User: What shape does this take?
Amino acid sequence: MASTAQNALPLQSQRLDIFSHPTQDQRAKDKARQLLREILPKEAWWELEDRGVIKITGQRGQYVISPYAQTEIRDIATGRCVAYACLQLTIEAPTYDRMVAEYLLIKNVEDVYWKIANIFSRSHNEFSIAKRLLIVLDIAMFVNLLIVTAR
Amino acid sequence: MALKRLRMICAAGDKTLAQWDTETVNPERLAEIEAEFNKKIAEGWLAADISEKRDVLIREFDPNAEILLIPPVRGG
Assistant: This one.
């Protein structure tokens, strides 16, 4: 029994090693996050720490840049999301580096950002043909259900 | 002493291409760094002066700036 426990110890320390040394990806992510911290104003950094997003207001809207989702473009007056933007780096890099690029582009050359990024209007997608067809189908099935149960 | 760096975004987060002391760097070394900067700009990279959160895009090399090179971007 004791020998079994002793044998298990090296394994345990090996497992601890795996978890205590960050992987290359994790190191890159940490470095990119640190770079973003260097660049962002303090308030924007706190917002990222607190809510997980960067907010920047431009001439054409307010942008909510997230590490995990497409950038939201909101109406400045109402705060309503009006579109989503998608921008990528042409090299493989951590997501925080993409956030650095988006932040600097929006801050300096917002119009160029609109030309390069793919912008998807939210109102356009809200009731697309597919969604309308699904709604009609749902209503038809519901009516059918009512007829069947009434018989 | 004022240390400045030319950094670029890469798969490892970012890496330093050059580092110099604005007071002691010799003109030849500065010309080399500027040539490297210009090469990246010609390839479509963007450059930003990020010293003290200035965060402005630049087109010309500034030896007094902390410079970050950003790879070309495209719609996703």
